[in-house]
Design brief:
Strand content: 5-15%
Largest sheet: 3 strands, antiparallel
Number of strands: 13
Oligomer: single chain
Bound molecules: heme C
Helix content: 25-40%
Shape: globular
Strand order of the largest sheet: 2-5-6
């Protein structure tokens, strides 16, 4: 190696730079230059409009804007995407049925299709803000767990063998639907208490604090110490590109001590395909490492369908729910041993990996640029990290070496008591959440007019979402409270342009 290169590498290492085995020293230097936060807010940055690189779509803005395939997919890729789309939208039915290739739903389930929760590939809808809303919530899940009581249980958690201990009767998730002849597990009741927040310049905002109850329990009492973690279905765009971000780039943000009270934490989780402990990236607590594994988990937990990674035909039925195990399942010997055979699972994973992020709107608008500057100055970028260049060796060629702008570090942060669910998942504790990507967030209401924000959908607007920030994000939130009304409007205008 030339001395100059060695010096350069040493300098980069001491700056906390990531190693990135997929790049030459020259490329690494180029990438670090491109991904450094900008200091110039007078005009958009190069390529900023194309926030998902060559995968970005430039399409008419309407309710289908999250449902397009990545712009750079090959012809074969598009065919696969279309088949996957069909499976994502299809309503599964209970076994046995005449349509043998799509039965096996349940016996316990939360919804009949992926699309029922990920509305038009965007986020789901919460029960609504009626003070006494009793509802058959679809897109809102309640994860259930209990604290460890024995040494063996503590070991299972600390070794990572289990991310959480399921409730002994009801399992890891409340399924509020069941096939005919079987009781459902119960229903979700949400009650909201309004909280008034005063902002500089005489404005006020009203935040809605949710409280969850489970009613009409179908299988007897739940353990008194059961912990409930509510989760709303997030949008599906750009996920394959998030998987293609190099782990070193993510961990560099975890390691960096920026002196700003922010310390991102990785969630190390089990990769069921390889058996390895790997970086969690997906879901609100980064509990899943890959799009494929989360998609298979959704078939199992949310719909009660088996696939190679989650082979039980009875989903989240527990030993205490014998009636659930006695129900027929939908695996067809001539189609393979799973209700969702590997071939179909691959189509769904491909689809989930290749939903396109739309291009930015008006990145050169003066108000948008002013809002962008405020976003940087308030240190929102301490967690919502603007840009990355994806791996050169990403699994799928279309995801390789793309400059992308997801506005996330994919790490866990303590978000304070207001957002805490008190429930751990792997290394994520009861106050921690993964920074969600912000790309596409400005089109949320175009795709689903009833959509709301944050892990449980409690925030009815982008401003409410920001005002709920606490813990490591308290300082950023306080800066927004102290802004003039015009500045706050600019900040929101920037988010709406994403
Ligand atoms: C009952 C509602 C529901 C159904 C049905 C559902 N999902 Fe989800 N989905 C969710 C929720 C809630 C989350 C977040 C879970 C968490 O944080 O643990 C999620 C997360 C995801 C994610 C991760 C997204 C991200 O940004 O981290 C993927 C991928 C996904 N679902 C795919 C699917 C697929 C594929 C199907 C159909 C097989 C499906 N989902 C069915 C509610 C649902
Ligand atoms: C310490 C890390 C951190 C900082 C700083 C931070 N955020 Fe967040 N942000 C998060 C996390 C984590 C969530 C998800 C919290 C939840 O769902 O409970 C989130 C959620 C959001 C959401 C809602 C996203 C969605 O999909 O529902 C918006 C909008 C948002 N942040 C904007 C901002 C803005 C604007 C700032 C700066 C004023 C900021 N954030 C500062 C970590 C941070």
């Amino acid at each position: 190696m030339k001395p100059l290169v060695v010096l350069l590498l040493a300098a980069l290492a001491s700056a906390g730079a990531s190693a990135r085995g997929d790049l030459s020293a020259e490329d690494l230097q180029r990438v670090r230059g491109i991904t450094a936060p900008t200091r110039d807010f007078s005009a958009p940055e190069a390529f900023e409009t194309m926030q998902a690189g060559a995968a970005t779509v430039k399409k008419l803005i309407n309710a289908d804007i999250f449902s397009h395939a990545s712009a750079n997919l090959s012809f074969e890729g598009r065919q696969q995407f279309l088949v996957g789309n069909g499976l994502f939208r299809k309503d599964w039915v209970s076994a046995p049925s005449s349509t043998q290739a799509s039965d096996g739903l349940g016996p316990l389930f939360n919804a009949r299709s992926c699309q029922a929760c990920h509305v038009k590939d965007g986020r789901g809808t919460v029960p609504g803000f009626d003070p006494l809303a009793r509802t058959d919530a679809v897109a809102l899940l309640l994860r259930l767990s209990v604290p460890p009581a024995t040494e063996a249980e503590r070991r299972a958690l600390s070794s990572g063998e289990l991310a959480a201990l399921p409730e002994p009767v009801y399992g890891a998730q409340l399924q509020n639907f069941a096939v005919a002849g079987l009781p459902s597990e119960g229903r979700i009741a949400v009650e909201y208490t309004p909280i008034t927040v005063r902002l500089a310049g005489g404005e006020t905002a009203i935040l809605m604090r949710p409280a969850y109850r489970i009613e009409d329990l179908g299988y007897g009492p739940m353990r008194a110490d059961t912990q409930i973690s509510p989760r709303l279905a997030p949008p599906m765009i750009g996920l394959g590109l998030l998987e293609a971000i190099h782990e070193d780039d993510i961990l560099a943000h975890a390691a960096a001590d920026k002196g700003d009270g922010i310390s991102g934490k990785p969630n190390w989780v089990h990769d069921l395909r390889t058996g390895a402990k790997v970086l969690g990236r997906f879901n609100w607590k980064a509990g899943q490492p890959t799009v494929e594994q989360q998609s298979a988990a959704a078939f199992s937990n949310d719909m009660g369908l088996s696939s190679p990674l989650f082979p039980s035909h009875h989903g989240d039925c527990t030993a205490a729910q014998q009636a659930c195990f006695d129900m027929p399942h939908g695996a067809q010997p001539h189609l393979g041993e799973h209700e969702v055979p590997a071939r179909l699972m691959d189509f769904v994973s491909f689809y989930s990996n290749n939903l396109a992020v739309p291009q930015r709107r008006d990145p050169d608008d003066a108000r948008v640029l002013a809002g962008k500057k405020l976003f940087y100055e308030a240190n929102c970028i301490g967690c919502h990290v603007p840009k990355y260049v994806t791996r050169r060796d990403a699994k799928q060629p279309e995801h390789q070496f793309q400059l992308i702008w997801p506005y996330t570090d994919l790490l866990l942060h303590d978000m304070g008591e207001g957002l805490a669910d008190g429930v751990s998942e792997g290394q994520a504790n009861g106050r921690e959440w993964r920074t969600p990507p912000l790309w596409g967030i400005g089109l949320t209401a175009v795709v689903n007019p009833n959509a709301t924000y944050l892990h449980d959908g409690r925030a009815r607007s982008l401003l409410e979402a920001i005002l709920w920030h606490g813990g490591e994000a308290q300082a950023a939130r306080d800066r927004v409270v102290a802004m003039t009304p015009a500045e706050r409007a600019d900040l929101i205008r920037f988010l709406e342009s994403l």
